[in-house]
Write a structure and sequence with these properties.
The complex is a heterodimer. Chain A is mainly alpha-helical. Chain A has one domain. In chain A, 56% of the residues lie in helices and 0% in strands. Chain A is built from three helices and no strands. In chain A, α1 packs antiparallel against α2. Chain A is globular, with a radius of gyration of 14 Å. The termini of chain A are far apart. Chain B is an alpha+beta fold. Chain B has a domain of 128 residues. Chain B is built from six helices and eight strands. Chain B has an eight-stranded mixed beta sheet, with helices on both faces. The radius of gyration of chain B is 16 Å and the shape is globular. Classes of the chains: A mainly alpha, B alpha+beta. At the A-B interface, α1 of A face α3 and α6 of B.
Chain lengths: 80, 187
């Protein structure tokens, strides 16, 4: 069995793609019971990315509305 | 055979201070298309000025779209937007990429006539950010070319996947007047 080890950059890239899928999923189901669980999933991944050193701005359509974005992400862009 | 080009760039984003005065499309990123030999007119699909005015300023429009509210959109001459993205690319992630699509002479003429007709009559379509629901009746800038029968580098319009696909299948776009005799950027 081959073991694939991702670098941090590769891992963060895969997580970015996952967030873009979750944002699309949330937009398609925001009126359903599933929406809350999508948001929790999204926030957990993005918090983990910030913890791993991610400090970029996501593609605009990969973001949820600001009120659903984790504070750790929003804090990255606060002026000093 | 003739070529039709899909062209696009990643936006500067809405959160970084240096680019806050740029236009909405420069900050959001944009995709358009143009016809062989006619890159002095690059078409782009985006919300109409009237629809934006009803929602508010640029930040309000983006918030509206993130919340998955649709807007009325139309085809515009966005040539200046792509030139601005090209000019910014040294300091921002706005490198402009293009992907050629080969079409028959007959198909080229049919698609060209349709695009110009929609542009001239300012025909409106529904604009929305991509979602995983059934979406035959709504597009963003990246999926709009499908309405003309053009193949997309990525089918959903999710920019995080669309832009790398455009880059992988295409080449860097050089604005007219911005290349030397070898075709390299003259900057």
């Amino acid at each position: 069995m081959t073991q694939v080890i991702l670098t941090d950059d590769q891992l963060l890239s895969q997580m970015e793609i996952k967030l873009s899928h979750l944002a699309m999923r949330w937009r398609g189901r925001k009126e359903t019971l599933e929406a809350d669980s999508i948001v929790r999933h999204y926030q957990a991944i993005l918090r983990c990315m910030v913890e791993l050193g991610y400090h970029e701005e996501l593609y605009v359509d990969s973001e949820l509305p600001d009120e659903l974005m984790p504070q750790e992400y929003l804090d990255l862009f606060k002026s000093a | 055979m003739k070529q039709i080009y899909i062209i696009g760039f990643r936006g500067t984003g809405f959160r970084s201070e240096p680019f806050k005065r740029e236009s909405l499309l420069i900050r959001a990123g944009h995709v358009g298309f143009y016809f062989e030999g006619e890159d002095d007119l690059i078409f782009g699909f985006h919300p109409t000025e009237e629809a934006c005015r009803v929602v508010g300023d640029d930040e309000a429009v983006i918030a509206w779209l993130k919340a998955h509210h649709p807007m009325t959109g139309a085809l515009y001459d966005d040539t200046a937007i792509f030139h601005r993205a090209f000019a910014l690319a040294e300091d921002a992630p706005t490198t402009v990429w293009q992907m050629p699509l080969s079409v028959s002479d007959e198909g080229y003429e049919r698609i060209r006539q349709q695009a110009y007709a929609w542009y001239d009559e300012r025909k409106t379509f529904t604009y929305a950010f991509p979602s995983d629901e059934f979406a035959e009746t709504r597009d963003n800038c990246a999926t709009f070319p499908r309405r003309l029968g053009l193949s997309l580098p990525e089918p959903t319009g999710n920019l995080r996947e669309y832009m790398p696909a455009l880059q992988m299948n295409g080449e860097r776009w050089l604005a007219k007047g911005d290349q030397d005799d070898t075709g390299n950027p003259d900057r």
